[in-house]
Inverse folding.
């Protein structure tokens, strides 16, 4: 198995989900609930997000085939989307690829933030779904590589669950500045991965390979 594929799957899973970056969002969404209720919301959010990723990983190829979307086109589009998200992470801007201003207003009025906005679109947003589909297509049905993808996202979700569960404690330990530093580092990695996805897509475009 290609070691680069394993490293890429884990790096992509962690950077696009951004476990550390979920801490302030968790605190903001559950500011008015008890610690017990916050834990229940976090559990539900991670389970829903995992279900969405699994569903898209299983039927994603069928959707692409039905729509007539080629792998190079999807790689380029996914790379552009990931680069957009990376720029938001680097400059600490609200990520519109994950949620819009209208969604933020709706989130503020929501009674249970587990499904929205925590599960969707913060954990399993368009960027995450695009990355899952991209990696599944890159695996070309290889069972070992599909297993690597599943493990990578399972580990990333588990770390995200730990960060969200311990959001209050983590915020006190590393502070807002620490969270911003980690998020920016992840943004740099995600930007590099996004550029590589675009380059790979261009290289695999049939017209350019002739």
């Amino acid at each position: 198995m290609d070691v680069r594929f394993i490293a890429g799957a884990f790096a992509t899973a962690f950077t696009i989900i951004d476990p550390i970056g979920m801490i302030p969002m968790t605190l903001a969404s559950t500011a008015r609930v008890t610690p017990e209720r916050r834990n229940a919301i976090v559990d539900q959010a991670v389970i829903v997000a995992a279900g969405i990723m699994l569903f898209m990983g299983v039927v994603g190829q069928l959707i692409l085939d039905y729509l007539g979307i080629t792998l190079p086109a999807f790689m380029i589009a996914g790379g552009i989307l990931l680069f957009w998200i990376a720029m938001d992470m680097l400059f600490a801007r609200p990520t519109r690829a994950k949620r819009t201003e209208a969604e933020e207003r709706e989130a503020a009025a929501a009674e249970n933030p587990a499904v929205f906005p925590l599960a969707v679109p913060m954990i399993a947003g368009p960027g995450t779904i695009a990355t899952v589909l991209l990696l599944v297509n890159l695996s070309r049905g290889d069972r070992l590589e599909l297993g690597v993808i599943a493990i990578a996202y399972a580990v990333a979700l588990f770390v995200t669950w730990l960060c969200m569960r311990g959001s209050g404690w983590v915020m006190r330990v590393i502070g807002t500045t620490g969270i911003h530093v980690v998020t920016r580092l992840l943004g740099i990695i995600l930007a590099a991965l996004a550029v590589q996805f675009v380059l790979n897509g261009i290289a695999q475009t049939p017209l350019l390979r002739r």
About this structure: Residues 3-202 form one domain. Residues 45 and 115 are 6 Å apart (CA to CA).
